[in-house]
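Quick one:
INPUT:
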């Protein structure tokens, strides 16, 4: 079982990493073709609008409400009843997403005006047109999320792990084949097609597990009631990121002629991609297990999963967070400073990335802690913490954007995530007893110290490399690539050595086989 879990985690990590790399390549192509100009700003806003409405109305709770109830029915009743519940749940999702799509198409103009009130007429009209094209993609999104819930409940994590990879590849292929031929309108149509692929590739696996969709309008049974009973509070608790995005879009539409909208989106996508690679693997792997543990009243087992997950995510995210704050300019240049992407756009995006990076660890913690509450079918606690953090984010956004521009909006998002994570952690301790024992606390502190030492080493290394590359006759992104190529390995080595010297047990356990191999070679 342990070996199978490790293999699954390894495949998920590799697939997710590849999907995120393709996501970055997709964003690099968008930046190279459209920079932070009118087409980019309109597309970013238009693509964000359907997904944000989906997240606010239903998206954040599909898997989180489905998986605990589906597993509970499987555990306490039968597979047949669980499959009936799944069909009814999917019917409900189809109805809701279809209504949202129709609403979005009919009121695209007003919705864009709400999202970005400071847009000029050209940008506004293009964004409204593009959002009307892309709104139906939320129907496919709802189906894809529902199918993921079924497959993960049966222990199938590999297919759900590759769905984003497939959709990202479709968009990259569009750029490779058509480039600018069909402009940003063609990109919007491709986005719709890409989401449909996420549904299609899951169907064979669903058939393998015996699922056959049977439409039914008799939705009001006890299982649907159970899902809806936790959906309301759970939904509010998932509003944090979408509402952060709304606040940022509204304020950013008046900064630098609206260019700040695109800069924030480029930075946010990179930030979310990095955190998502690891938090996605951890949360999607442990959530069904936590749900089963809580359904079987194994509270200690569920709590152990939470503490191990938080410790593991700290080991990965803390050094990445430190590295991104030091190398934000170089990273942004390597990824985006191509085509029509200007140095000014790089500076704005890099500043936003630096500020977003301050909240990386808190976003990762929130992913785990929220899922832990949901697995207990407790949606009220994360709902309360989400409301408090949203208030903090809005207040910070208005204060900081006036002084720091786009960077202030990103920093406000990081601050809101920090408030959310701290409150979730405190309340999880009250609900489940101490999530972190003394050993866990020491491990996280040692990890933090190692990350800080690494940050200092990377900072010194970056200063040296920047002075050496200043006179190079090469494009700026190539100079930045040289800086990253030297500083990143230095950071990894320093971090690993610090973890071993200070005594971070999880890292020592990971590195133990390699250390033994090196010592054997030295003796020979």
């Amino acid at each position: 079982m342990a070996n199978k879990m490790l293999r699954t985690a390894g495949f998920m990590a590799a697939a997710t990493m590849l999907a995120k790399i393709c996501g970055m390549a997709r964003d690099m192509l968008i930046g190279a073709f459209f920079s932070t100009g009118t087409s980019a700003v309109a597309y970013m806003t238009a693509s964000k609008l359907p997904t944000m409405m989906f997240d606010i109305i239903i998206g954040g709770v599909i898997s989180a409400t489905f998986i605990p109830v589906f597993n509970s029915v499987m555990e306490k009743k039968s597979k047949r009843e669980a499959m009936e519940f799944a069909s009814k749940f999917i019917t409900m999702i189809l109805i809701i997403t279809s209504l949202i799509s129709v609403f979005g198409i009919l009121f695209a103009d007003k919705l864009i005006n709400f999202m970005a009130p400071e847009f000029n007429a050209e940008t506004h009209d293009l964004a409204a047109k593009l959002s009307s094209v892309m709104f139906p993609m939320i129907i496919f999104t709802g189906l894809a999320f529902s199918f993921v819930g079924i497959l993960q409940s049966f222990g199938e994590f590999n297919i759900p792990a590759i769905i984003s990879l497939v959709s990202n590849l479709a968009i990259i292929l569009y750029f490779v084949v058509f480039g600018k031929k069909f402009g940003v309108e063609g990109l919007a149509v491709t986005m719709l097609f890409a989401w449909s692929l996420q549904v299609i590739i899951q169907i064979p696996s669903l058939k393998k597990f015996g699922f056959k969709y049977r439409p039914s309008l008799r939705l009001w049974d006890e299982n649907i009631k159970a899902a809806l009973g936790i959906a309301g509070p759970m939904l509010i608790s998932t509003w944090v990121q979408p509402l952060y995005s709304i606040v940022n879009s509204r304020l950013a539409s008046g900064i630098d002629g609206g260019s700040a909208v695109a800069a924030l989106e480029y930075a946010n996508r990179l930030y979310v991609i990095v955190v998502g690679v690891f938090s996605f693997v951890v949360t999607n792997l442990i959530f069904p297990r936590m749900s089963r543990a809580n359904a079987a009243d194994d509270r200690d087992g569920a709590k152990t999963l939470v503490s191990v997950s938080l410790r593991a995510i700290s080991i990965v995210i803390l050094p990445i967070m430190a590295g991104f704050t030091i190398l934000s300019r170089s990273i942004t240049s390597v990824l985006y400073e191509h085509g029509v992407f200007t140095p000014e756009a790089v500076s704005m995006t890099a500043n936003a990335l630096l500020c977003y990076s301050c909240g990386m660890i808190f976003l990762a913690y929130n992913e785990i802690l929220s899922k832990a509450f949901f697995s207990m079918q407790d949606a009220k606690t994360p709902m309360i913490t989400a409301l408090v953090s949203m208030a903090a984010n809005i207040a910070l956004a208005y204060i900081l954007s006036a002084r720091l521009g786009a960077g202030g909006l990103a920093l406000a998002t990081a601050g809101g995530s920090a408030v959310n994570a701290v409150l979730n952690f405190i309340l999880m301790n009250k609900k489940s007893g101490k999530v972190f024992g003394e050993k866990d606390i020491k491990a996280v502190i040692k990890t933090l110290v190692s990350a800080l030492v690494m940050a200092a080493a990377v900072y010194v290394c970056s200063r040296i490399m920047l002075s050496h590359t200043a006179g190079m006759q090469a494009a700026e992104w190539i100079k930045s690539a040289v800086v990253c190529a030297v500083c990143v390995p230095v950071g990894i080595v320093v971090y690993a050595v610090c973890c071993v010297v200070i005594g971070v047990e999880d890292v020592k356990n990971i590195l133990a086989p390699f250390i033994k191999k090196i010592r054997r070679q030295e003796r020979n």
